[in-house]
Amino acid sequence: MKEQPFHVMAKPSGSKCNLDCKYCFYLEKEGLYPRGSHRMTNEALETFVKAQIHAQPDGAEVLFAWQGGEPTLMGVEFFEKAVALQKQHAGSRRIANAFQTNGVLLDDAWGAFLKRENFLVGLSIDGPRELHDLYRVDKGGRPTFDKVMSGLSVLRKHGVTFNTLTVVHRESACQPLEVYEFLKSIGSTHLQFIPLVDRVGDGEAVSEASVLAEDYGTFLTSIWDHWLRHDVGRVFVQLFDVMLGVWMGQPAGLCLFRETCGDAVALEHNGDVYSCDHFVTPRHRLGNLLDQSLGDLVRGPQQREFGQNKASSLPRYCQECEVRFACHGECPKNRFLHTPEGEPGLNYLCAAYKRFFTHANPGLRGMAWLAMNQQPPAKIMEVMASA
Length: 387
Description:
Layout: E1 7-10, H1 42-55, E2 62-66, H2 76-89, E3 95-101, H3 108-116, E4 120-124, H4 129-132, H5 145-158, E5 162-168, H6 176-185, E6 190-195, H7 213-230, E7 236-237, H8 238-247, E8 264-267, E9 272-274, E10 285-288, H9 294-299, H10 301-312, H11 316-319, H12 324-327, E11 335-338, E12 344-347, H13 350-372, H14 380-386
Parallel strand pairs: 1-2, 1-8, 2-3, 3-4, 4-5, 5-6, 6-7
Antiparallel strand pairs: 8-9, 9-10, 11-12
């Protein structure tokens, strides 16, 4: 059987970060490693680079995705070494690098490096100042909007390709077009929205910052309606792009919406590999790449069972849902509600996605028809204008 590519979210600084975002789920992972430095060693870096290159199928582009914590804490020199190792071991393979950052430490040295080595940068920004600063604060509790915008200016100055990652919390969900237009105004043409679901305890309660499902549904449909009339082909919203592929009969390009998962693992600074970024727990530790083959860890029985559980644990309510083909129960981390029949495993965001997929269906069908008939999906805007 042909091996499938997999994704590794590498965290060279572990959970260490220079910010103290009030909703961050990863800061607490520091407790997994109470001793020693939270910096990836040269040995772990070289082992990872070699393993990632050689574990991917022949002909596939090899993507290195760097996250944290905050990866800029490692310094430019660490990533210069990473790139040198990639070039040393790549052979004929194509290498790409993606880099997620809060932007606060970006300066001209970073800008020059990221441009020279063609890194794709994901910049975390939650919208206009008042929405961003509500939760994205530094270690002293101070706002970070101005520092992030300074980092953005570095990226734009050096011509670095970037997209934006925006956490949608309870307050921002009520201002969809304000958030969307702000992101456009700062030059972002590729937008990723991340709904904040912060579960409290083992029940169905969530934090006060967590988005309400009904509001997230409104957030998505409001932006969709505006985008469908004005910005198709000019602004790319990750969820919309993924769903267009689904409506064209393709597998979802995002693990959240695939029937099974397990092909996106997290790598901690010391070489420990975990089932998923959202499941970095002792129970979901697969092993360490300094001791075992990365490919064997990702394709091994423990991880395959983890991925298959996404489908096998889907409650009947979801199995019989008319939009199951698009949702597949979304991420297992959010499945902590009970269905109307009392069965566990309903996704907290079910109402949001059901509303959005139903609402967007006509437009998605129209764009899918255009694409499959060798016409640009952006022609849907002409259809909408004449409707």
